[in-house]
Amino acid sequence: NGFPLAVMDSAAITILRTAAATGLAAKALARADARIVTICGCGAQSKAQLRALALTRPLEKVFAYDLDSGRAAAFAGEMTRALAVPVAVAGDLRTATRQSDMIVTCTPSRRFFLEQDMVPPGAFVAAIGADSGDKQEISPALMGSAKVVADIRAQCAAIGDLRHAIAAGTMQEEDVHAEIADVLAGRRPGRDNESEITIFDSTGTALEDGAAAVAVHERAL
Predict the structure, then answer these.
(1) Residue 147's closest CA among 106, 172, 116, 178?
(2) φ, ψ at 67 (rounded to 5°)
(3) Dihedral, CA atoms, 217, 218, 219, 221, nearest 10 degrees?
(4) Is the pTM of this model over 0.85?
């Protein structure tokens, strides 16, 4: 009848939903033996991202990178204690990513910083930060060379890292392998081999926020 059931902090719900989507994408698109992850950006979202990955992959080592080294150090200490997994501050991003099976970018960057030669064969990349047209984290060359899975294809073409790859001419919207829902539902395959690079272009969708809010409300009751 339209009567409100609950009032919730949308930011808190969105942080958890965004991280949960990454965890599911990693389960579907990362190698089965993926154990080492680099987190780019050490804000509130990054903590949720790492917790979600730990639920779907048995992590052995984590590299934390942030332009603010103090923030990276605080993140490393807190998450080492929380997950009982060694989290080290990455002094050099390229060195960290080249050693990683999974890379998560969750920054407000306006210019790409993850380049093609920084990502080893077989890696999984979750591109989280580009949720508006002026944000970018992944180089168009890397996007064009990888298997790209979108959360919402049309939305990624409008505001995600896919948008910049299309503008640079390295991809077209139809080059996207699948939407993540198609992979999770078995309508499209995920990873085909151990050497391909997979990228999850995550721009966020309100439908998932609604579903997460329902779960929170049901648990509260």
Answers:
(1) 178
(2) -60, -25
(3) 90
(4) yes
Nearest-angstrom CA–CA distance, 204 and 209: 9
Q: What string of pLDDT tens digits covers the 221 residues of the chain?
A: 999 999 999 999 999 999 999 999 999 999 999 999 999 999 989 999 999 999 999 999 999 999 999 999 999 999 999 999 999 999 999 999 999 999 999 999 999 999 999 999 999 999 999 989 999 999 999 999 999 999 999 999 999 999 999 999 999 999 999 999 999 999 999 999 999 999 999 999 889 999 999 999 999 99
Distance in angstroms (rounded) separating the CA atoms of residues 70 and 67: 9
Q: Is-contact 97 66, C-beta < 8 A?
A: no
Rounded-to-10 torsion of CA 5, 10, 15, 20: 30
Which residues on adjacent β-strands are paired with residue 199? 125, 148
Residue pair 65/158 in contact (Cβ under 8 Å)? The answer is no
Instruction: Identify the H or E element spanning 93.
Output: helix 93-98
Q: How far is Cα of residue 205 from the mean position of the Cα atoms in its chain?
A: 14
Query: Is 74:94 a contact under the CB 8 Å cutoff?
Result: no
Estimate to the nearest angstrom the gap between the alpha carbon of 90 and the chain centroid.
18
Residue 165 identity:
A
Rounded distance between C-alpha atoms, residue 123 and residue 125, angstroms? 7
Beta bridge partners of 149: 178, 200
